[in-house]
Write a structure and sequence with these properties.
With 526 residues, this protein is an alpha+beta fold. It has 3 domains: 3-220, no CATH class; 246-356, Beta-Lactamase, CATH 3.30.450.20; 362-526, 2-Layer Sandwich (Heat Shock Protein 90), CATH 3.30.565.10. Helix content is 60%, strand content 14%. The chain has helices at 3-16, 26-96, 102-120, 128-133, 136-140, 146-169, 178-244, 265-270, 274-277, 291-311, 377-388, 397-419, 424-433, 436-445, 478-490, 498-505, and strands at residues 249-254, 259-262, 314-321, 330-340, 346-354, 366-373, 454-461, 464-470, 508-511, 517-523. The strands form 2 sheets. Strands 2-1-5-4-3 form a 5-stranded antiparallel beta sheet. Strands 6-7-8-10-9 form a 5-stranded antiparallel beta sheet. Strand 9 and strand 10 form a beta hairpin. It is rod-shaped. The chain starts with a helix and ends with a strand.
Length: 526
């Protein structure tokens, strides 16, 4: 193809594809391209008619220049209006992406043909042009736009009525000589046939382009699939090996605790099959040997999940899960991450790692440190884990776990009854109503309590284990509480038993006079 031919082809494609940046729907883009082709066809057909008109004017001017010179202004004016309306339709349609502007050109073409028929009379049979216009609205509108199609067809039918009325009742404004009229009758028929051929060509070309494009895209998709499927299969296999091959428990769940998926490692640790776990609730796995202890474990895990969803981040906590068929409970370190599914549903991805002895423990001889926490119950749980992480160096595992629970209870007491000044009766009432977590949250926000902290100093050695817990509250009557702890156990209250548990585990439980400081000591037998 020559350079000029390539340039023309480039311009043609640019005009046909004009306005595609405003279209996001593939079907609509197709109809817009058809409309662009038809608008360009109107230009070419009108150019053809202009050539015929110029030829006719030349003949007529030779016969009678004075009589026929007015023809030029009439036909030239009509053609100019049609060109302008075509350009306006093209601009508005492609600038806005709205096919409703196609109505402008239909009205313009109908008016143009109607005017020609009134100028020339019935023998040229210009009404035949309307037969070529009838299918055009179906080309440029979808089935859903049937109202637009009906409106277009009514305009075309209105043109028919106007033409036949003019034939019957109006004399031609610019009658042609009989010999020229016969020649232009053939031209009119030829123009009508040309319009129909152009319409057929547009549809054929559009379908051919669509099939070609679909073929190219199909092959492209097939090539992508040939490359992607093996990669996906490989990635899926690696992911499966990563999830199923690990000893850690990997799972996903809803924010209410409903387990959606879990790997086979759960059977190794707790004895449950995957099918037994999926659809259940993570809270059901918590150790429930004691109603109050279970309530606290659930409360701590629930607070951790609530904070996770609120902050939409990642948290680490601990939980002890019960094994199947009376197997020993297993303590896990949980790493929970907030995420959203493809459907936009809130989910939590989790990894549970069994807490095992640190390999460095055999090198440990002495450990000491200090911590300061705020008034979140979850912080008390995390600190109790940190304070007892290396206890198995000096005591057995069961004692270490019991001491962790005891320390957690004492830290929670320091927060609730110390820093937040919540009485035992207030806590009992809030727990009875099921809104204790909300009660704690409101208490923490109070300016009177917001800045208070709990400080812990500790020492671990081969001779003793010692903890010092100090809160910033007003203190309490520890003598009365110590006397009441036995009744608390008997009444199965959900709180008030931490001091009793601590007294059974530690050799020394000593409060200061104010009651906001307690020292816990356990001596290690030689």
């Amino acid at each position: 193809m020559s350079a000029s031919g390539k340039r023309i082809s480039t311009i043609w494609r640019a005009l046909v594809n004009a306005g595609q940046d405003k279209i996001t729907n593939v079907r609509q883009a197709k109809y817009h391209r058809i409309a662009n082709r038809l608008l360009l066809a109107i230009v070419f057909i009108n150019l053809w008619l202009n050539c015929l008109e110029i030829f006719a004017f030349g003949l007529l001017l030779q016969r009678d220049a004075i009589r026929y010179k007015s023809y030029f202004a009439a036909y030239g004016g009509l053609s100019t209006v049609l060109y302008f309306m075509t350009a306006l339709t093209f601009y508005l349609k492609n600038r806005t992406g709205d096919m409703k502007f196609a109505f402008v050109i239909v009205v313009s073409v109908v008016g143009y043909v109607l005017a020609l028929s009134l100028f020339l009379g019935s023998k040229l049979m210009l009404h035949l042009v309307f037969f070529a216009l009838i299918p055009i609205p179906f080309f440029i509108h979808t089935v859903r736009e049937w109202r637009s199609v009906v409106l277009h067809e009514l305009v075309i039918i209105g043109g028919f009525v106007g033409v036949f009325y003019g034939y019957a009742h109006l004399a031609p404004l610019y009658p042609l000589p009989a010999d020229l009229e016969a020649g232009f009758l053939i031209a009119a028929l030829f123009t009508t046939i040309a319009i129909m051929i152009v319409c057929v060509y547009v549809m054929w070309r559009q379908n051919d382009d669509a099939e070609t494009q679909l073929s190219v895209e199909k092959r492209h998709v097939e090539m992508l699939l040939e490359e992607t499927i093996p990669k996906l299969e490989s990635a899926e296999a690696k992911y499966r090996n990563l999830v199923e091959g690990t000893n850690d428990v990997v799972f996903s769940m809803r924010i209410d605790g409903t387990i959606l998926a879990i790997n086979r490692a759960i059977k190794k640790h707790l004895g449950y099959t995957v099918e037994e776990i999926i659809g259940g609730n993570i809270y059901e796995l918590l150790v429930s040997t004691d109603g109050a202890a279970y309530a606290l474990e659930r409360e701590l895990l629930q607070e951790s999940i609530t904070n996770l969803v609120r902050e939409r981040s990642t948290i680490t906590t601990r939980a002890t899960f019960a094994g199947k068929y009376a197997r020993e409970p297993v303590e896990f370190s949980l790493r929970l991450e907030y995420t959203q599914s493809a459907k936009g549903e809130e989910e939590i991805l989790g990894k549970a790692v069994s807490v095992q002895d640190d390999l460095m423990l055999k090198f440990l001889h002495r450990e000491r440190g200090s911590y300061s926490i705020g008034n979140l119950i979850s912080h008390a749980d995390l600190l109790s884990q940190k304070l007892t992480r290396n206890l198995t160096k000096f005591v057995d595992t069961s004692d270490a776990q019991a001491m962790r629970i005891s320390l957690r209870e004492m830290l929670i007491n320091a927060i609730e009854h110390g820093n937040l000044s919540i009485t035992f009766d207030e806590k009992t009432q809030a727990q009875a109503h099921g809104d204790f977590l909300e009660y704690l949250a409101l208490r923490r926000k109070s300016p009177e309590y917001a800045g208070r902290t709990v400080r812990v100093d500790y020492v671990l050695s081969e001779k003793r284990i010692a903890y010092r817990i100090v809160d910033e509250g007003p203190g309490f009557n520890h003598a009365a509480i110590l006397a009441a702890t036995d009744s608390a156990n008997e009444d199965f209250l959900a709180h008030g038993r931490g001091i009793s548990m601590t007294r059974s585990l530690f050799d020394v439980v000593r409060y200061n006079a104010k009651g906001n400081e307690v020292i816990l000591i356990k001596y290690i037998a030689a």
